[in-house]
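A protein record pairs a chain with a discrete description of its three-dimensional fold. The following entry can be read in just this way.
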Amino acid sequence: MRRLAVALLLVAAPVLAEPQALEELSLVSEHPIEGIAAGNLSGLAWCGEALWAVSDREDDRLYRLAAGDSVWQAEAEHFVAPPLSSTLLPWGLRMRTWVTGLVRGGKLDFEGLSCDAVGNRYLVSEARAAVLQIPPAGAPQWLALPDGMVRQARASGMLWHFNALLEGVAIDPAGERLWLAAERRRRGLLVLHKQGSSWRCSGSCVLMNEGGSEPSAPQLGGEMQSRDFAGLAFYKEKLFTLERQAHRICRRKPSDGAVERCWSFAAEALTDARRYPPPFGLAEALWVDEQGAWIGSDNGRHTRADGEQRPVVWRFAAPEGGWGRSR
């Protein structure tokens, strides 16, 4: 009997080890974006009646994307971020980020964009580990984040490496819960709750964190890459993470960050015509709604195989049965 059980396990092992293929999202449309001179689209959010974008090379503007037939025009809305007297990051990371900002532009390095129900826009600064709120009317202001947020994140292994810090932000419609995504080496999710005019951790700021690597999409040869988060969205009491190296979107529990289901967009993003020279042209921005997902691609000023030189926004249809489907 024991030998029979072992034999059955050996037969079943290859089946159990076989990775489950993800459902592919269907591409509805593709939109090159004119007017973002610095390129490097890094965040998307639907606010009011329009889709908005931010570039991590520009510290003083958002872009309203005016829809056209195919090519969309970016219309700049300028703002002035107030001085930030202190930052929660250690000196070494601050200085390296500051020098990089001088060289390439974007000292604040805005890496994500979100929007609440009344039209406040929220930008996460990777360089400062801070969040800027831009109201529909009035002056921008930095959110009063808790001093312990970065300390807790670093104690969990996150926010230790240059250019691998905070990469995504999501706010609930009421503007009372805020989530932040740590990019990689280790990646993770943080959550903050609004109390009066400041933000607090309810228990721990850290929802989840993980390290390690996983295979890239088969179209890229399946080479092992660091697990990462490139964007974050909140929709109908769920978090959605953009995982660029794996070319997928995952739905997660907002209470602990546990993954529930994932969908791939590799089939459309990695066609021969849409390829960039490695490692450029990765997806950086995400917004999710009932009809589908907006995904923004950061071309880093590089040219795609088909000759396209502008940042690109894709519209993918929601999966059949909707984003809440369990299987």
About this structure: Residues 21-317 form a domain with the Neuraminidase fold (CATH 2.120.10). Helices lie at 2-17, 91-104, 148-155, 266-269. The first helix runs from residue 2 to 17.
